[in-house]
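User: Small ask, check this?
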Amino acid sequence: INAEYMGLKRMWSGHHTCISPSSFKAALASFAPQFGGYEQHDSQELIACLLDGVHEDLNRVKKKEFVQLKESDGRPDEVVAAEAWDNHLKRNQSIVVDLFQGQLKSTVQCPDCGKISITFDPFMVLPLPLELTQEKMKVYDVLVVSASASSQQAVKHRLKISENASLSQLRNKLSHQTTLPASRLLLADVFSNKVWEFLADTKPVTSIQSNDLIMAFECPELETIQQENADQYLKLSFQQKGGHYPTGPSYPFVLSVLPKATTNRQLYEFVASRLPIVAQVHSDSESAPKADPPAPEGFPFTLSFVDCPLCSLHNCACGARLLVEGESALQGLRASHRDPHKGLEVVVNWNNPAHLQYGSVVDDQSVAAIPLYTYSTTHRQQLHLSDCMKYFTSKEQLGETDMVYCASCKEHKRSYKEFGLWRLPQYLVIQLKRFQYTLSRWGGSKLDHLVTFPLDDWDVHQFIVPSSPAAKEPAVYELCGVTNHSGSLHFGHYTAHCLQAGQWHSFNDGFVGQASPSAIVDPEAYVLFYKRKA
């Protein structure tokens, strides 16, 4: 960077209409490789990296001593803030610190025990939200099949959860709503009356599509599996079949058994004991068809594999029928090529499908209480930069993905967070948080709000902590530069506006020209540079 200082002097010499920064970019990429190449980069990240690099090069502290951080423990804010800033200066002293760094007061409060933690942290860029932080919520319907022998219906539950949540958090929320232990619930994506796949806990909820049928099966055996080696266990999915898969409403069910300890007869008995959960056989002698004699093996159904473990074919001719008294077909599965975590699909073949009445689905009260879709008819109001500062300094509760560990409760909590300005820098750099990153397939989106901001005489006193020494000093800023971004989250173009000798200029690649003050406030404004007035 120092080697390019003469290039920067040429930029301000007034002898050139434009200067290509390619050599400056190469010098920057030499110590920050992420900015090499021609991919789009975030201008705020570039500014922060550049200032940090210059700070480290010019740091007057050559030997950084270890600093022990201390809790506030009820001490006065003035004492804790001064101590924190002194500790910061013991490791960081440069012109970048003198001009660009300020100090924030951060207050975190546990929602349960009320414990308050206060810290004072240095900042170089203020990331301001364009709206109050509100988690975007998703609504999902899940059919729950209980392991209770008295339950013969699947219950539809409706859940509202953050779109940044994982399937593990969805399962825990479902457990709270159904009172079924989360350790017993197995989530599955069901398609065409069959289990398509079991859903991994680490996947985001946004991996569920709008037309997916999601089911949760209570498998008491899962609690045992979690205590042992899960690779020794096999998840089995079952569908009713009478020559063909049923075309009417039906749903599968899932069992979990241990291959080593399960014989064919034990598997038949296990299935027979759980069948009332999924299907009912007519018992009314007047309305029910005449029952066929039971199979010679003593069960009104036979079991067969869909993917034959004998010949490794899908729906093979032999069907890999399981004989009740035959040798256990599950014994050799651990040595086969199959992935036991995907589950082994077994078909229940009824001797007389007419006797079968598929289980029905009933709605939980949450279905009526939570609308599946919500529509908003309100229009987004025009924002002022002070509104964004109010959002930033407002007290808010953290989301499920940002929980903070409470030392008193000994667990993570959705704590309340609040910021306040304590020490002001000479140059205040503000990032308007236009880019929102999520776990969705698109990765996020860009907010194109028009944020109006003052070009001069912006007073930030109302955002300073009243007990701070800065509250007694002038706190008025004037705008001296703006970087703009046009485009979307994944691509776009950067331009800039800069104030020089009272005249605004526009910078757009090779074009440099004068700009009107009325053109500075724009929906594409992204990073703002304010200079504190004397």
Notes: The first strand starts at residue 102 and ends at 109. The two ends are 30 Å apart (CA to CA). The first helix runs from residue 5 to 11. The mean pLDDT is 78.
